[in-house]
Specification:
- There is one protein chain.
- This protein has 318 residues and is an alpha/beta fold.
- It contains twelve helices and twelve strands.
- The protein has helices at residues 16-27, 45-48, 53-56, 67-74, 95-116, 151-156, 160-178, 202-212, 228-240, 257-267, 288-292, 300-313, and strands at residues 7-11, 31-36, 57-61, 79-82, 121-125, 183-188, 190-192, 217-219, 222-227, 246-250, 253-256, 276-278.
- α1 (16-27) links the parallel β1 (7-11) and β2 (31-36).
- It starts with 6 loop residues before the first strand and ends in a 5-residue tail after the last helix.
- InterPro entries: Epimerase_deHydtase (IPR001509), NAD(P)-bd_dom_sf (IPR036291), NAD(P)_dehydrat-like (IPR050425).
- Residues 8-245 form the NAD-dependent epimerase/dehydratase domain.
- Keywords: NADP, Oxidoreductase.
Length: 318
């Protein structure tokens, strides 16, 4: 008798990273439960076109703030990948309602459902946003898994996304430890790379704006960049390696916006790049712990070229 495929759940399956996680899981013969807000929505059509989707992917209509809908998607799964979280592409008028509550309560509901359904391992996708907003971190010291964003600093500087990710990760940590869940947290940096979905997500829109907006001036802020495919690989690695534990920073390249623009100009000279740059801050992060687990990342040029070509194919840069 053939062995039954391992069944796992991916929250936010139709999103930028979620879609790649689903694609990689299907390619490794997992049976995938994917949560989306509306399975029939056109923006989820790309999922049904993935290899092996017709036989191995089942979409569940779920709202992370509705516990029962989350539980119904997770029941019967041995593993859960909690990828979904609101990411704003513009300013947020009501951060508590639009960002913080959905991120925190959604994470609580996922963790609770995993506990109730006796899931073997949960992978929580957090963010470097929950790491780097820390004015008390010693200057010049590389930020690693022990560094956390300062919640009060996030509030006073109105970094609401950073606050939402920090609060949500704290919730996962507290619930997981209290209830004996086997969980691993992956904190990716700014994610670029090719789109599978038809809509533009917040992290990709940053690069698209660099190409199109013709800014007069931009602050030369540091950006930590990682490829969406490498993050999906990291997430699977954290799930499949029994020795994986705790937090893992997931980032490949740190560079100022000016250097990123210079790199883009060398690859694609004919776009409307920012004209000048003002001085920005700096920080250093390390993915050494994740690399010790066996993770590696692709060249930056490959990420940038594959990003732009996917935007072109989707008609976004026309």
């Amino acid at each position: 008798m053939a062995l039954e495929k391992e069944r796992v759940c991916v929250t936010g399956a139709g999103g930028y990273l979620g879609s790649w996680v689903v694609k990689f899981l299907l390619s490794k013969d997992y049976f995938v439960h994917g949560t989306v807000r509306e399975p029939s929505d056109e923006k989820n059509v790309h999922l049904s076109k993935l290899d092996k989707a017709s036989e191995n992917l089942k979409l569940f209509k779920a709202d992370l703030l509705d516990y029962d809908s989350v539980l119904s998607a997770i029941v019967g799964c041995t593993g859960v990948f909690h990828v979904a979280s609101p990411v704003p592409s513009t300013t947020v008028p009501n951060p508590e309602v639009e960002l913080i509550e959905p991120a925190v309560k959604g994470t609580f509901n996922v963790m609770k459902a995993c506990h109730e359904a006796k899931v073997k391992r949960v992978i929580v996708v957090s963010s470097l946003a929950a790491v780097v907003m820390n004015p008390n971190w010693p200057e010049g010291q590389v930020m690693d898994e022990t560094c956390w964003s300062d919640k009060e600093f996030c509030k006073t500087t109105k970094k609401w996304y950073c606050l939402s990710k920090t609060e949500a990760e704290s919730e996962a940590l507290e619930y997981g430890k209290k209830n004996g869940l086997d969980f691993v947290i992956v904190c990716p940096s700014h994610i670029l790379g090719p789109l599978l979905q038809s809509t533009v997500n917040a992290s990709s829109s940053f690069l698209i704006k660099l190409l199109k907006e013709s800014y007069e001036s931009m602050e030369n802020q540091p950006r930590d960049i990682v490829d969406v495919r490498d993050v999906a690989e990291a997430v699977l690695l954290a799930y499949e390696k029994p020795e994986a534990e705790g937090r893992y920073l997931c980032t490949a390249y740190t560079m100022g916006i000016r250097d990123l623009v210079d790199k883009m100009k060398s690859l694609y000279p004919n776009y409307n790049y920012p004209k000048s740059f003002t001085k920005g801050g700096q920080f250093m992060t390390s993915s050494e712990k994740l690399q010790r687990l066996g993770w590696s990342y692709r060249p930056l040029e490959e990420t940038l070229i594959d990003s732009v070509e996917s935007y072109r194919k989707a008609g976004i840069l026309n």
